[in-house]
UniProtKB/TrEMBL annotation:
NCBIfam families: rrf2_super. GO terms for molecular function: DNA binding; DNA-binding transcription factor activity. Pfam families: Rrf2 (PF02082). It comes from Hyphomonas johnsonii MHS-2. This is HTH-type transcriptional regulator NsrR. GO terms for cellular component: cytosol. PROSITE patterns: HTH_RRF2_2. InterPro entries: Tscrpt_reg_Rrf2, WH-like_DNA-bd_sf, WH_DNA-bd_sf. Keywords: DNA-binding.
Length: 138
């Protein structure tokens, strides 16, 4: 949202209301992105958020790694590992390969690549709209 409106500050409340997210969740993400230098937070009555750099220079894969540091795809990926079959299971290898492929694909894009022009964004769509699913190779 901040990337789509570089000329003005966006508030936490505005983000939460637009995307129907809890204010607390948005604050948590904003704190992380501010601490990491992705967002600039301006305090005060007329404060808000904006990107610190051009969206073309913000790598999508790096952003996902930053906001999702724990891709626990299976029980054995976590600590503690309570999986009863992890000693002989062959699933972690393919799952790691899939995760690396997923992140490598995201590395090819910037935040700018994901942005809509303001005229293209009409707001969140109702849940009863058909959802676009993944395109799976057959």
């Amino acid at each position: 949202m901040a990337a789509s409106h570089p000329d003005r500050l966006i508030t936490i409340s505005e983000i939460a209301e637009t995307y129907d997210l809890s204010r607390g969740h948005v604050m948590k993400i904003v704190n992380l992105l501010s601490h990491e230098g992705i967002l600039e937070a301006v305090r005060g009555r007329n404060g808000g958020l904006r990107l610190r750099e051009d969206p073309a220079h913000i790598n999508l894969g790096a952003l996902v790694r930053l906001t999702e540091p724990d891709f626990k795809l299976a029980e054995c990926f976590g600590t503690p590992n309570n999986c009863l079959v992890s000693a002989y299971c062959k699933l972690p290898g393919p799952l790691n390969e899939a995760l690396n492929a997923f992140l490598s694909a995201l590395d090819k894009f910037s935040l700018e690549d994901m942005m809509l022009k303001p005229s293209q964004f009409t707001g969140p769509q109702p849940f009863n709209q058909p959802q676009r699913g993944p395109l799976l190779d057959q």
